Amino acid sequence: VASLLVTTEWSDWRNGVFWWIQSVYVQPEARRQGVFRALYAEVERRARVAGDVCGLRLYVAQDNAAARATYNALGMHETPYRMYEVDWTG
Ligand SMILES: CC(C)(COP(=O)(O)OP(=O)(O)OC[C@H]1O[C@@H](n2cnc3c(N)ncnc32)[C@H](O)[C@@H]1OP(=O)(O)O)[C@@H](O)C(=O)NCCC(=O)NCCS
């Protein structure tokens, strides 16, 4: 009923690895039942076991109020960073 994937990025500043949570999706009929909470808990458990992980990160659309509320509820906080890109797909 749900998906996410994890990619990794080494942080030179922290000399550790951030796990990026991406492609988060819970089917509409399964929402608000703790599905993402459970997925997040499992990602966190695996990341802590890995030993070299300095934290979890993700990006979210500014107008996605439900997702932002979810990440806040799970203890994540907004960073001071802004994301820049060049998108060649048109
Ligand atoms: C955002 C999303 C992943 C949340 O998944 P979920 O399984 O419904 O979340 P959970 O049931 O684990 O909720 C955990 C907590 O987050 C908060 N939360 C979840 N959905 C919320 C909503 N719509 N509004 C406000 N708070 C919300 C609540 O505090 C919730 O705890 P509670 O239900 O005990 O109050 C899901 O709504 C979704 O797939 N949305 C569409 C895709 C999407 O936006 N993906 C994110 C892209 S960055």
The shape, in one word, is globular
Span of the ends, CA to CA = 31 Å
Oligomer: single chain
Largest sheet: 3 strands, mixed
Average of per-residue pLDDT values: 97
The rounded Rg comes to 14 Å
Order of strands in the sheet with the most strands?
A: 1-2-3
Q: Approximately what portion of the residues adopt beta-strand conformation?
A: 25-35%
* Helix and strand element order: EEHEH
Amount of helix: 25-40%
Which runs of at least 5 residues are low in confidence (pLDDT < 50)?
A: none
Summarize the entry for a quick read.
The chain is an alpha+beta fold. It is 28% helix and 29% strand.
How is the secondary structure organized here?
Elements lengths: L1 E10 L4 E11 L8 H16 L2 E5 L7 H9 L17
Parallel strand pairs: 2-3
Antiparallel strand pairs: 1-2
Bound molecules: coenzyme A (COA).
Account of the protein in words:
With 90 residues, the protein is α+β, with helices and mostly antiparallel strands. The protein has 2 helices and 3 strands; from the N terminus they run E-E-H-E-H. It has a 3-stranded mixed beta sheet with strand order 1-2-3, covered by helices on one side. A hairpin with a 4-residue loop joins strand 1 and strand 2 (16-26). The chain is globular and about 40 Å long. It starts with a strand and ends in a 17-residue tail after the last helix. The relative contact order is 0.18. The mean pLDDT is 97. The chain binds coenzyme A. Coenzyme A is lined by residues 24-26, 31-37, 60, 64, 66-67, 69-70, 73.
